[in-house]
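Fold these two proteins, one after the other.
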Amino acid sequence: MTDKNQKKIKSNREKSGLYNIGKIILTILIVGGSLYMLRFAKLEVVRDWVLARGEWAELFYVMCWVVLPIFLFPVMIIAFAGGVAFGFLKGAILTMIGAMINTIIMFYISRYIAKDVVNNLIVKRVSGKLREKLLTDNQKTLGILFFILRIMPVVSYNLENYLAGVTNLKLGVHLIETFFGIIPGVVIFLNLGNNALDTKSPAFIGAAILLALLIIIPTWMSRKYFGDIFGNNNNSDIQRDK
């Protein structure tokens, strides 16, 4: 083996080592930051954070959307706070901007940290329809799958973002399904926040009814399109150790 080849192998090993160290550090930061941020997961706290910034309140709210979901902060609280602080229309625009930027960041964080590990776990532990859907290269199938996950409020926004990054879903497809998938939730949660001070108002009651429909309809859609991979069944797609 020539000196040139030896140096190349050594360089690749060093790069791989730094790459793995970077992944470990980033993982620790996300886990530690998540534990810390959950202490502040209250509507009043986020609202006060935003309003205390005065003329910078709009920018600060967008940055809340960009940064906080990375640390598993409940996004419903951020959306409620946006409705309370800015009303429906401005809150919705700012929310969409922040959420789309955050989607890109979380997608690449997930792909950088966990794609290989999670794919191997899916291959070893998941079988049947669920593995087929998650490991496919078909962008239409993945797009529809993640669109349905996105519009279901019972599925964590943070989890969906991180899960998308470890599949073969392309960023462009992910941004499209995210844009259209978060619109129903944005409309409902911003409306709830905007009318939070008058829970007996028709607007608040209407938003609450829409929230219930947002849970029921996507669940029906998932069963219709994907069969039983989201449902309870005796033949689980998740393989367990014996």
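Now the second one:
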Amino acid sequence: MSKNRGYNQGFNQEIDVVMRVMRHAQAAVKSRFIQDVVPNRLTIVQFNALQHLHWYGRDAGMYVSELGEHLGLAHNTVSGLVDRLERHGWVIRRKCEEDRRRARIQLTPQSKELFRERVEHVVDFWEQTVGQLSAEEQQNLIDSLKKLQQVMAKPVWPSYSQLHPRDADHLREKFETDIDELAQTKLKLVGIRLILAQIAEKRNEHELAAYLNQAASEEIRHTNQLFSLLGHGEHFDKLLSSLVDEDKVVYEELLALIDDAPCTEEDEEFVLLQQMLQDSHRYKKWFRRVHKEKNR
């Protein structure tokens, strides 16, 4: 009995060492990962999205709904994420040849260059870590990891396709996601047309302004009809929640712009940014309060 107890204690100590080494290795990899991400002003979530496009999208790209499935994020969240990546030149939306109403998200040359550089960084990282072991030590480590892999290969984990079966429910969900994506596109058109209508009014192009306002009004009606198909209450709460998130993003981007602005406090651009920041702060407080009250 005492012999078994001594064996178990020794085994447990060895397991503690293995777990500690794995934690240190994970921390080192994460640290290097952050070093690659931060200089490019990318968040971890944004970089993960680019990685999935790099791994699974390739030249064809991915729909917003597909990217959302891979990331495990809601459609509205992914749509806003893609908007920000597109704004900073990391991705581009291209109309699908089979269905011109839809767009596929593709990496830009800037993103592809990022992943080419990352390969070099990874090689450099392993040379500075595992490369410090002798050839014999490296081989022993590889042999041990292979044995560990064989032991941990059972049970077999389900594949991505098994976790996401293409049954009738999945097709229905995909259809609803596509409708939601169409509604989001129409929402953006509303904003663009209202802005153009105001510009047209200032230029005394009243007929054009009237057409733009009418088109915006009809887009609002179409969007409401689409949301009615999907269930008004659920999507109202979802949109309100996404509005709170987007206001936070806009507020943070305004702060960054003001910090980096190549102008003085008296310049027109700086005054405008300050006013927008104040307005954004008010909007953020309004919507956060309303959202909080609704969730009580």
